[in-house]
Amino acid sequence: MIKSCNIKERVNELVDSKLTCSLKHKQHITIPSAIRRRLNILPGEEVAVGLKGGSKDLIIKKYSDHSLDNKMIVSDRGSIRIPTELTRVLGLCRGDVFHIYLLKNDDCILLKKENL
Predict the structure, then answer these.
(1) How many Cβ atoms sit within 10 Å of the Cβ of residue 101?
(2) Whole-structure pTM over 0.85, yes or no?
(3) Which of 44, 48, 74, 102 is the most exposed place for a label (fewest CB within 10 A)?
(4) Residue numbers in the chain where pLDDT is lower than 70
């Protein structure tokens, strides 16, 4: 779990970006360019992908040496792979849609699966 992004204490700081993304073939999602620009996430950079404690929400954050989460590299088109163990734990499948939330201080992306 990403410790430096303590969602439980900062839940009031979540901001709905009004954007969504979906799980594509081979467990990839594309982070919208507006979000990547706002968080200064560039192609080739590493991000940490983990779970929000006690929930089924994904957290994406720029990777730091202190992270114990999965490290993924952002593609030229802004996509990252969701690790297999997370897709299994969450029961994710191709086509699942996520609402994208940001923290006010812009250091994390929170993906909440949309229930259809």
Answers:
(1) 20
(2) no
(3) 44
(4) 1-12, 104-106, 116
